[in-house]
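Deliverable D5.2: sample structural annotation.
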Amino acid sequence: MLKALIRVRFASLFSSMFRTKKTEAGMSTGKKVLFGILWIYVIAVLLFVFGALFFAFVPMLATELNWFFFALAGLLAFFFSFIGSIFVTQSQLFDATDNELLLSMPIPTYYILLSRMLLLLILNYVYEGLIFAPALFVYVLSGYATALGIILLIIAYLVLPLLTLSLSCLCGWLLAVISSRLRHKNIIQVVLMLVFFLGYFYFIQNSSDYLNSLIENGTAIAEAVEKAFPPFYFLGDAVANGNLLSFLWYFLFCLVPIIPVYWLLSRFFIRITTTKKGQKKIAYRRGELRVNSPMKALILRELRFFLSLPMYMMNSLVGVIFCILIPFFLISQQETFLPFLSLIGPSAADAAGILVAVMMIFCASTNIVTAPSISLEGNRLWLLRSLPVPSKKILLAKAALHCLVCIPFLLISTLVGCIALGSSLLSTILAVLFACAMTVLIALLGLIINLHMPKFDWLNETTCVKQSGSVMLTMFGGMGILVVPVLLYVFVLNFLPLIVYAYLCLALCVAGCVFSYFYLTHKGVVLFERLQG
């Protein structure tokens, strides 16, 4: 039974990566190659970044603080994996759509839980491998590596995900318990995700300062790590000095917590997954029935569904978060941008607005509200199809939601950014129009791509939002819309005045919106009516 559950979980993972529809055997070879290249690129970038970090600490291997090199690798792997899996853990363990189906079968609860935890363990191995692999590579190249040290570092990598899994499962359980007893649990989850997200980008923005501080104050920080994070001190001492007793302590720190955590989760699994507390009970009150137009009713339906899925909101509105932060960044960095823009000469005021426009285009390209919109209907698609409204209005309502939640933030950020940099009126208007046009274009393109690449065989909404082909193609396609014109101007069309070229690009963007609208309302309607959820 356990083997069958594990096989189903891994088949679901494979399906989420390489299938788009229930009726399809799999992706075409071309799509698999495209996805393969994309993943190789992302992995290569991460390996390079972490490899460069560890190269900066190679001199430490020749000192008494050699253990800190490996303790740092363990700490980074632990926190990187924990942050990457905490919210996925809650959705995979307690919010999966097949919970009720599996619990209705004569399957022991601990089998269901164990199969899901094994999948999360594989995810942790992937996260932590992106840090341990460059650490091991740099360790071997440094000339200080020993055979025992290499073996212990590999074993340390194999057992550390157990510690990460213990903590992420415990936090996921606490989040599930808290959210099951709250009326506004979605707001709480969004706030927590936003805090994690902002904290992550704050760390990335100041990472160079942290790195310099780490190098300059290595001794003091190493002493703090030794006292505050003993498992990672034991890890470093074992690998650097061959201390097997320290490695035994590290091994116990990683292995022991998973046992009580697994017992706790298996005991309360049914109670959490079946609890429906926190839902507001509405007493019926007689009153006047409010009637909306079909289009308004459809948009309100889309909005309610959107607000009910925190993971969907956070992953599809990355650009909105960026655009909220950009004005603060521009205001705080005026001393850097204004002298640079003054070097351009008379067109500095135009260049300021174009710079803001480029930032807003990037933000708009990373908002992918419509990209998983069709897929998220899942087995409820027939309900949407049965509504007595034209399919055209259903599709336009989804696109309208994208514009409704994105354009207000983009407009405010654009105006504040232009004012901060002293943009001219002509380039300010350009930036505002670009923000609106790009948002509309991404909304339409995301919907069109999702109609061509729907995904209905998901077990959790997170799969649609994070791992579907339509999401990745929409996001990287939107970035391509930004990158290609910039490269064309830099290498080919730089004889044109910058503001003239920018308005030509705006005209092409508007033309793309018009073409996408007609494609969606004609060919898109045909594709939608052929779908089977």
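Annotation notes: The longest helix spans residues 109-141. Residues 294-530 form one domain.
The annotation will be released with the project's public dataset once the embargo ends.
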